[in-house]
Amino acid sequence: MALEEGQVYVVTGGCGFLGSHLVRMLVERGNNLSEIRVFDLHMDETLGTLGNDRVKVKLVRGDISSYDDVRGVLSGSHLVIHTASLVDVWGRVPPSKITEVNVTGTENVLRACEEEGIQYLVYTSSMEVVGPNIHGDPFFRGNEETEYTVYHNQAYPLSKSKAEKIVLEANGRKVKDGKTLHTCSLRPTGIYGEGHALMKEFYEQGLRMGRRVFRVIPTATEHGRVYVGNVAWMHLLAARQLQERPSALGGQVYFCYDDSPYKSYMDFNMEFLTSCSFRMIGSRPLIPYFLLYMIALLNVALQWLLHPFCVYAPILNPYTLSVASTTFTVQTDKAERHFGYRPLFSWEESKQHTIEWVKGFEQNGKDR
């Protein structure tokens, strides 16, 4: 089925890390589009300047947890890419707020699709729908069909798991005017690239330590990482093919992957931080795991004690320690088989783009 020309896409969370890259990708390569609506609570006005004679970029401020806001922005659109999500595994926001944004927000999108007769929805899920689980069971070179014991006890993975479930269950649902809703879900592993807030935190933390990063995770631990530009590219292809081949993509889940190397989070981050003269201290973990776990538990206790006075949310807690210490890598070609995905950016290109962005921190520091 040929794609209809002059389509209107809605990108929820369009001013976020992934969302902003996706909007730029759609402007550059979304040839059948006439309008991209960027829906977010916090606006990035620079995205509004990306429009051209072919495609209009419209910024719409709104709250994903407000049904009226969601229905208003979806009205008259052809397809929704639902990236809006509240990511928090540190205790910076209440669990109820995470559920409100991630679950209620997704329910609002599905309800608006039904009442506005929108037939296509691409959902941005997360690897944490699967794991790593809190028992530390490895997921080694797994694919979408690999059996794995899923066990969540944190609001973020619980909310993403529930949201993905209702998105997939909505596939095939009848919407306004007797049309059929088609949905699919994309599960990025750890996304990196320009604009990644956590990478900037690691950079600033390393500066405080004299440009030194002390090894705490064994080199044998591996994680799958994927460049943000390739995640955006996969979303664009999925959006096209969901329309052209709804019976093939509808109800399916896909890991987002590329050619980025399998390394621990620490070693992977050093691929970029070494460009700023950072160095890793230690070939083995300098702090035993049990001591790290005790520190993580202490952080939880301090968080509880300080809650009435301030938000204490350090990066290290039992959940983040478990994730960082557990091998979780994917090896799959499902997206390639189903809709022709191949990475748009090579590892060398992805690395260079990220390094150039990280080096910008250095220049910004000198300008202050």
Features of the shown structure:
globular, Rossmann fold, 368 residues, 13 strands, alpha/beta
Helix/strand layout:
Blueprint: E1 7-12, H1 17-29, E2 33-40, E3 56-61, H2 67-74, E4 79-82, H3 95-116, E5 120-124, E6 139-142, H4 155-169, E7 182-188, E8 190-192, H5 197-208, E9 212-214, E10 225-227, H6 228-244, H7 246-249, E11 253-256, H8 265-273, E12 279-281, H9 289-306, H10 318-325, E13 328-330, H11 334-339, H12 347-367
Helix pairs in contact: 1-6, 2-3, 3-4
What structural class results from the helix and strand content?
A: alpha/beta
Number of DSSP strands?
13
Shape: globular
What is the CATH architecture descriptor of the domain at 7-196 and 222-261 and 329-345? 3-Layer(aba) Sandwich
Notes on the protein architecture:
The chain has a domain at 7-196 and 222-261 and 329-345: 3-Layer(aba) Sandwich (Rossmann fold), CATH 3.40.50.720. Helix content is 42%, strand content 16%. The chain is built from 12 helices and 13 strands. The protein has helices spanning 17-29, 67-74, 95-116, 155-169, 197-208, 228-244, 246-249, 265-273, 289-306, 318-325, 334-339, 347-367; strands spanning 7-12, 33-40, 56-61, 79-82, 120-124, 139-142, 182-188, 190-192, 212-214, 225-227, 253-256, 279-281, 328-330. α1 crosses α6 (228-244), α2 (67-74) crosses α3 and α3 runs parallel beside α4 (155-169). The model has no long low-confidence stretch (mean pLDDT 94).
